[in-house]
Design brief:
By secondary structure, this protein is an all-alpha fold. It is built from 12 helices and no strands.
Amino acid sequence: MHGGGMSVRHIQTPLFLIILLALCWSATPPLGRIAGQEAIPSFTFVGTQALGGMIILLLICAARKKWPVVSLSTVPFYLISGLFGQALPQLIVYDAVQNIPIAVVGLILALTPLATMAVAAAFRVETLTLKRCVALLMGFCGTLFVLLPKTALPSVSALHWVVLCLAVPVFFAFSNVFSVKLRPSENDTIGNALGMMSVATVFLFTGSLIWGQLYLPAVSDPSHGDITLAAQAAIAGLAYVLYFRLLDRAGAVIMSSTAYVILLLTTLWGALFFNELPNGWVIAAIILITGALLLLQHRPVHLKS
């Protein structure tokens, strides 16, 4: 098709990239669970994930011969996005997946667009419409479906891990909003991403040294944990390639569709690999939050810079 229409190929390519990207991002919770079972420290696992993304971004910048600017105007952005948009939330996710079902972690991560909208509205960089208020209410109800019923979680002790994990979409939301306000004009998206991942990598590996969590894999005779670390680094790097490719070809609105696929995949991985079949409360929460995301999809959040 030509002219005003869209060809099947143009539709299929973003869809293929969305599925691949969702596969990469949804792999982190199950790989984190496996790494935890193999006694891989949290700082090492998350640091390896950040390192994989940083290496890929370094290679992209080297190929483009365009490097991120380091100045008084760019460093605050790197620090906020690196710590609150990457390192701290990923550390929480790693600990959470050791204690609560992977489907629940995926459900909480899917709240990020809703949390971003709420934070943007609170700081008056976005306005709340009726649809957005309904979406927020649906997301809130979906969260309560996990928190309140005694049968929604495998044990009462898992409740505080769910509450802690709820900090993750809030961290992402604050990072999204303030990163827009602080985004350096000297850099493009890839340059800013490299600055962010560099801060996250340095923070995480420094933390691993300070808190005695540095883990060095055995290259000659790798364990299951070592293989998991290598897989996570490779997947994180691939995810950045897919992310920017999708952003370039389809834009942020279509790319946000990955949230649905990630929610589905994390539920699937939990059931397939860890025998974590979601109960009725979790399924109801997934339906509510998916509906909330669909409402947002009709009018996505556009943060003002």
